[in-house]
Amino acid sequence: MMGRATLALAAVALLSACDRPSPVSDGAEADLDAINAVKPPVQPVKLAPLGAPDMETHELYNPACTFAEQGSMAALFLGFADKGAIKTGNKVRILAADAGSAKIEGGLRSRFVGKRYVLMLSVKTLEIRDPQGRVLQRIEGVLRCN
Q: How many of the other CB atoms lie within 10 Å of CB of 111?
């Protein structure tokens, strides 16, 4: 009989301990929150002009609009109804048009999203942001549409 009472008492003690957080888990949880709050350092980006070889390789024919830096004809962005294209270094990056964003000239969307970058577009400004929303590059220029 004494063994059952001891066993029942031990079970009750264990169950009541489950309701109270341990100080160790509180500290570990705070450390995890602090780690998750740290953003990676900003990695500046510089767009490169998209040339005919880029357009052919990635089948970027007949864009609805292009964006060029003020005073230049070299396209830094090619815009289509459902996607956009930019070039960073030697890599062409395809970004999906955000269907929920506002429409601007030529029926183009004002926001395009990729794996590494978010592009915000207006008639006079192109802005590249990282996934945390930090501005990596802002270019004043001209949006030309067909």
A: 20
The first and second tokens of residue 58, run together, are 């990635």
Encoded tokens for 14: 């264990």
Q: What are phi and psi of 2, to 5 degrees?
A: -65, -35
Nearest partner of 122 among 146, 140, 98, 100, judged by Cα:
140
Side chain identity, residue 125: T
The pTM of this model reads 0.73
| Confidence bin at 44 (pLDDT 50/70/90) | confident
Looking at residue 49, its amino acid is P
Alpha-carbon distance 74 to 125, whole Å? 15
